[in-house]
């Protein structure tokens, strides 16, 4: 977790960077904003309070043509680069939502529970239990309530006998999914899930996430539909390949490693913004290799086995015992490994999603001259 002092320093340096962009010195800005120059300097040095910072940022927003929401740095809610949510805490967030059945009666459809999520991460993973039971796999089953589709991309991992339904154009589809299967759902494609067997748990881990379009949402809202559609058409012209809006992965074989098995889960390989994998850590009592990703990661322990999660932050090794149902948000470039100390194999899934530092940003960044000032502006521009 970022301490308050460091957080105030970062906000101060972000405000300095904005004043640089506006070609203002602290003195000229203080004069224009009718703000004490000594107080403004305290803010730039990170020696002020939240209240003073908010006052300054609001004044800047009133006076300069800037987006003040960009000046608020996110407060790191992780500890040592990760954020854990226990299965116990997850249960406390349980919400049951009703949807209509074939008789138009509102009856339980899903139970939702939150899993690990951080302010810093691009995803909102949920544990979802299918409460609507069906006795066939007919996509037109009147017991099934399709949603309207949603703005976020969705990666889904299946646990138990779950039916997956979706709609493309005027056509409805249903696929029978089982433990270890997975899918990817493109934004705004209507879909639904049900249970095929009410004697078993039917659960999905749904990792919904935003990409570049989510980050452009603010701009799209003021541009309006007509102009956004012009951009969409540009995209269509550049994107010549046929794409499949729903990607399904079933019965995939694991690759074997020294002490773990690994397989890819369904992901949108036409986009390079997300990946998924299932990892089974074998009961060898030995530590796996370290994993590390430039993406934000979400880890979920879906098996019945606890596992030792080891991770490194600034070369210090930390450990946590991950119980069944526990999940973790892992920041980019935090490396981690597992040690299975139980007799059974541990079953985990990991979803990785790109943040703002994607390929285009990386290439642009590589041309910059002084890398010491990228994440902390310390200088006036002249
Ligand atoms: Fe969904």
Architecture overview:
The structure is a single chain. This protein has helices at 4-21, 26-33, 37-44, 50-63, 87-92, 212-215, 217-223, 225-238, 359-366, and strands spanning 82-85, 95-100, 106-114, 123-130, 153-159, 162-168, 171-177, 182-185, 191-195, 203-209, 246-249, 255-256, 260-264, 274-281, 296-301, 307-313, 316-322, 327-330, 335-339, 346-353. With 382 residues, it is α+β, with helices and mostly antiparallel strands. Among the domains are: 4-75, Orthogonal Bundle (434 Repressor (Amino-terminal Domain)), CATH 1.10.260; 87-212, Jelly Rolls (Sandwich), CATH 2.60.120.10. The longest helix has 18 residues, at 4-21. The radius of gyration is 24 Å and the shape is globular. It starts with a helix and ends in a 16-residue tail after the last helix. Bound molecules: fe (ii) ion (FE2).
Secondary structure layout:
Layout: H1 4-21, H2 26-33, H3 37-44, H4 50-63, E1 82-85, H5 87-92, E2 95-100, E3 106-114, E4 123-130, E5 153-159, E6 162-168, E7 171-177, E8 182-185, E9 191-195, E10 203-209, H6 212-215, H7 217-223, H8 225-238, E11 246-249, E12 255-256, E13 260-264, E14 274-281, E15 296-301, E16 307-313, E17 316-322, E18 327-330, E19 335-339, E20 346-353, H9 359-366
Antiparallel strand pairs: 1-18, 2-3, 3-4, 4-10, 5-8, 5-10, 6-7, 6-9, 8-11, 12-13, 13-14, 14-20, 15-18, 15-20, 16-17, 16-19
This protein binds fe (ii) ion (FE2).
């Amino acid at each position: 977790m970022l301490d308050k002092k460091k957080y105030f320093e970062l906000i101060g340096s972000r405000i300095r960077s904005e004043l640089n962009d506006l070609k203002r010195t602290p003195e000229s800005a203080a004069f224009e904003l009718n703000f004490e120059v000594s107080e403004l300097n305290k803010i730039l040095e990170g020696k002020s309070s939240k209240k003073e910072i908010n006052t300054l940022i609001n004044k800047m927003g009133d006076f300069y043509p800037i987006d003040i929401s960009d000046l608020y740095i996110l407060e790191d809610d992780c500890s040592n680069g990760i954020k854990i949510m226990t299965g116990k805490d997850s249960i406390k967030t349980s919400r049951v939502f009703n949807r209509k059945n074939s008789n138009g009666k509102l009856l339980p459809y899903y139970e939702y529970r939150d899993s690990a999520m951080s302010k810093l991460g691009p995803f909102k993973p949920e544990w979802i239990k299918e409460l609507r039971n069906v006795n066939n796999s007919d996509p037109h089953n009147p017991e099934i309530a399709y949603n309207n589709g949603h703005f976020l991309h969705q990666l889904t991992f299946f646990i138990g006998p779950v039916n997956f339904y979706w709609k493309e154009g005027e056509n409805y589809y249903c696929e029978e999914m089982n433990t270890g299967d997975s899918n990817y759902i493109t934004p705004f494609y209507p879909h639904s899930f049900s249970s095929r067997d009410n004697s078993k748990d039917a659960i999905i881990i749904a990792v919904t996430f935003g990409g570049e379009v989510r980050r452009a949402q603010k701009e799209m809202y003021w541009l309006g539909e007509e102009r956004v559609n012009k951009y969409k058409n540009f995209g269509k012209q550049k994107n010549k390949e046929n794409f499949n809006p729903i990607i399904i992965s079933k019965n995939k074989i694991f690759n074997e490693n020294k002490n773990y098995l690994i397989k890819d889960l369904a992901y949108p390989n036409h986009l390079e913004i997300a990946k998924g994998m299932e990892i089974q850590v074998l009961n060898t009592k030995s530590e796996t290799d370290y994993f590390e990703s430039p993406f934000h990661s979400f880890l979920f322990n879906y098996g019945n086995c606890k596992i030792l999660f080891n991770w490194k932050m600034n070369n210090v090794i930390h450990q946590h015992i991950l119980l069944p149902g526990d999940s973790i948000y892992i920041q980019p470039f935090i490396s981690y490994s597992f040690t299975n100390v139980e007799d059974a194999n541990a079953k985990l899934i990991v979803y990785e999603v790109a943040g703002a530092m994607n390929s285009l940003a990386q290439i642009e960044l590589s041309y910059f001259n002084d890398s010491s000032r990228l994440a902390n502006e310390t200088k006036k521009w002249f």
